[in-house]
Write a structure and sequence with these properties.
13 helices, alpha/beta, Alkaline Phosphatase, subunit A, globular, Alpha-Beta Plaits, eight-stranded mixed sheet
Amino acid sequence: MAKRVFLIVLDSAGVGYEPDADRFGDVGSDTFGTCIRSGRLSVPNMEKMGLYQIEGTSFEKKGIPAAGCCGKLREQSAGKDTTMGHWEIGGVISPKPMPTYPNGFPQELLDEFAEKTGRGVICNEVGSGTEMIRKYGEEQMRTGKWIVYTSADSVFQIAAHEEVIPLEELYEGCRIARKMLTGENAVGRVIARPYVGESPNFTRTVNRHDFSLEPPKDTILDMLKAAGKDVIGVGKIYDIFAGRGLTKTFPNEGNEKNMDVTIYLLDEDFDGLCFVNLVDFDMLYGHRNDIKGYADALNAFDKRLDEFLPKMREDDVLMITADHGCDPGFPGTDHTREYVPILCCGKNVKRGVNLGTRESYADISATIAELFGIRYTGDGESFLGKIM
């Protein structure tokens, strides 16, 4: 019988600030804790898997996980963004931070981008994308220029109205920027940020697309693919890993549709990894300081587990984790330096195991590699022996 691992990343759902959070200005951040303290959180499936037994959290309750294994993972990479977080989950620790631009991008970089794309640039500020579009959307529509902005993360973001600049031209502009941004300007992601509507009620669309740096060495995706296994990406996984190591991909369509795909894949015969990113937690709620929306989205995900769990096969393993924090109740709108949860369950997975605090997100990939019996050259240490 084929072995299958379903690895679901609740994008930004951290479980409390890490020991080095002071370096990032994130002491006190606690994404899951904020949602729990809102009084709105109801996640019975994750609760059974041990969410409330994760040690050292603000919401820890003494006891034994009823239906799975639980723990938390510390990030070793020198950042708190989506790319580094997922690469570390994939077995690659990034010891050097990627470049950020707290004062905007150098003018010569923007001039080169304008020349190569044939369109001018406006904005060049640091801030929330919704705010940038609100401020500059009308000018963008009038002039046909690119809105270029960044955030606290290592990103070069390009926004354009879909009726002014066609999507494919926006994507091509991002590809041009990606080729330009190398060396000391090798940002983690170039992000297409299309929007629609009229001022002041512009809305961003699901046609966002990330153009990431390639990982500097092989990830668990590459290793599984080389070993002849299936590697299926759902949501932003293709973007984050620059398409590497995947045998099949389903683009991001939001949490609900991504879960529709994941549940559909339970009925498909494959042998390998289904790697899922659910970005709405981060994009729609964390960055917008929407505590209610974040808690409700976690509730909605947990409700989908009512459909998912009964359909799991004998050899299936489910792992739920995150890639960083983005506490909707913390000052500012940026990612937060947090531990992430690791929750595991399956018919052959032990119940009642507390994994404690693991030293790297990369332990997930080391565990998956051991589960499939493939050669592993990545970072991290396997916890397979503790859970199977």
